[in-house]
Amino acid sequence: MACYFSNSVSYGCGWKRSSYSLFGWNIGKPKLAEDQRPQIKYHDTTDLPFPPSLLDKTFLRGRELKCCYKATIDGFSAADFHNCCDFKGPCAIIGYTNKSFKFGAFNPEGYRSTDDYYDTFDPFLFYWTDSDKIDDPIVLPKVGGSGAALFDYARGGPQFGADGLLIGPPLAPVMGGFAGPDTNSGIGDLRRAKSRLGLSYAKREDGKESLFGDENKATLEEVEVYCSPQIASLY
């Protein structure tokens, strides 16, 4: 698994990257005292938009989950996304298109703006045939080996595989982890999404090669991210 450490500090959603990590990325640095650590802000949600059983085979099984990012409130910029979602641990992402299509994805690695990728079989995509339902999403697992299952671009939103699902991809190429002299340029817009299935993630049950059905691109009206506050508090 590729791993890259960033010592930058980012602000947004009431969160600043701390110097301690449950998973050992910041070994050797002192943990901030409780009264020095900023409080993470979560959005009030009455119910999860997906069944908890969806995550039964993941590290989030049985944990309390809260919404750490809501695009219509926090902003659709990839910078807004990372300010709210970086260093929160594994997470579930839910998206809604302007055609009332509901879909999602699970990221077992979380986000850290590393401009790197991860080899793993653990992530998956999912969607509903009836967007009004919460139960019974259809899961699309990783296929074609574990390689390049996840990308974590600082200027882009969630990306699963090279083409499986991209939400707010960077507007300019990211090469070798170097974003260029102006790192604020080319930041992705999470209203934009595209998908091609079959190479990195399984095709839909109906054989369609896009998560969105007949079209490989979609316009999103909402993106939400759910994480474990317990895990997030340990970073």
Automatic annotation (TrEMBL):
InterPro entries: TLDc_dom. This is TLDc domain-containing protein. Residues 41-229 form the TLDc domain. It comes from the Eukaryota. It comes from Rubus argutus (Southern blackberry).
